[in-house]
Structure formats: C-alpha cells, structure tokens
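Table S2 (text version). Query chain:
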Amino acid sequence: MEEANEIMSLRDALEIARSKGVDVILINEEPDPPLVKIFSIGKYVYAEKRKAKELAKNKVPKIKEVKITYTIGDHDLNTKLRNIERWLENKKQQVKVQCVMKGRTRMFEGQARELMERVRREVAHFAKVAGADKGNPTVTKDGRGDLIMMLNAGPDTAILKQLVEEAGGKKALKRQAEEDEDEDEEEEEEEEEEAEETSDEIKAIEAEIKDMREELIDCGISPGQVNTEPEMQDLFKRLDQAKSKLAAAAMASLSPRRQQVAFTASAHALLNSPTLRLR
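Corresponding structure-token output:
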C-alpha cells in the first residue's frame, strides 16, 4: 500500500497498482482530490468484512424488556422466562423485568415483590441481578411505581447456593460422595468424554479451515497463498492444539506400562524419519 496523504495523478496510481499486481480502490469520492487506496481488492473486501463482524460482535445490544403483573399465570410466566433465557445466550445482553403496578394493584406490592423474587430464583442458573453482588437492591421502583429488576447473563451463585441448601443439597452430595467407591472408573469415563469432545472440536476446526479457505479464495487470494494468511495460520495452530489435547487424553487413559510402550514407539518413529515438518 502506498503512503497515506500522497497526492498523485490517476495515471500514476494505475501504473503503480499495475506494477504491484493490485488495484486502485475508491474509498471516498467527496474530498478533492478523491481518496483512494492502492491495494488488493480481494484483501480489502475481506478486511472490511472482518471489521464489520468485529463491530457487530462488540456492539452492546439494546435492552430487552419483559412486562408482567403480579397476577400473571404460570403458563405466561414460563413463556417469558424462556424468552429471557434465549436472549441471555448473548453474554452482553441485558433484560429489564418490569412488574406493572397500576391503580389498585399498588395495594399488592408485597405479592408483586414475591413474584419478582420467584423470577430471580427461576432464572438463577443463567441470569443474575445486576449489582446484587455489590449489595445493591435487587428490585427497584421507577417513577410510576412499577417494580424493576435488571438481569445480566451468568448464573446467580448466591441464589443457586441457597436453593441447594434448601433442598438438602449438602446431605445429598455427602451421601453421593460416600457411595462413589470406584473413583478410577469415574475418571476413565470423564477422560473418554473429554476425548469425544476434543474429537468434535477437531472436526469443527477442520470445517472452519475449509470455510475460511473458500472465503479467502472468493476474496481474490490465490489458492497457493491461502495457507499463509494469518487467519489460516491461527486455525492451523488451534487444530494442532486440539490434536495434542486428544493425544494427551488418549495417553492418559493407558496404563503406565502401555504409556511407556507408546512413548518408545513414537520416539523410534521420530528418530527414523528422514524429514520433519515444522509449522
């Protein structure tokens, strides 16, 4: 790319672009002279797409609102709770729960607050009240007298702990721990599950590599240079890490004797290999 703020004729710009095998891209036609870039159009389009994705990812979404009354039925309440859960899958989303208090309903503020507490407990495994961990009130009142509760994504550990204690969770966990006699067997099952998850991760990364390769080629990058692009290098690095994790899990599942045999075989193969590939 040529130096910024350099003024030249269109003929010179085209000549430079032609000599470098790139393009003259119009960025802004409003200034005099117009603003252009001498750059690969494919890479420019790809970079702009990436920039747009990052902006969309970092954008703080608009607050979602849920309005209820203290007389709401279980069916309607459960529907609204499912909506809250779906919205808070976006970790940056915030949800405002508003219990509307009009006219005579203000006489039943106690029942309304009980309902708000019920909502808090119902959503505790995926939502927490904003500021509650700092000692702020969980429910506030706006100028119209409505009750307000702001929810953020993430489990409410205080409420979950309280629910476990109320359900006799500590005793149940203790009984379960006493009944777990074969810990080695449980560890093997966990390692097998971890290996399966890692295998799925490898498949997902390989699919990402395929999609990224097609996207880069569509942007004008030659197939021979695709693998050298930073995005592809990052994906290759993630793939290597996932494969190493899977290999470690497989090794951990072997007995010490089998681990020694596998290590010896790997070392022998490495020493007898004429070439090595470094990434």
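Notes on Table S2: The chain is about 55% helix and 10% strand. The mean pLDDT is 79.
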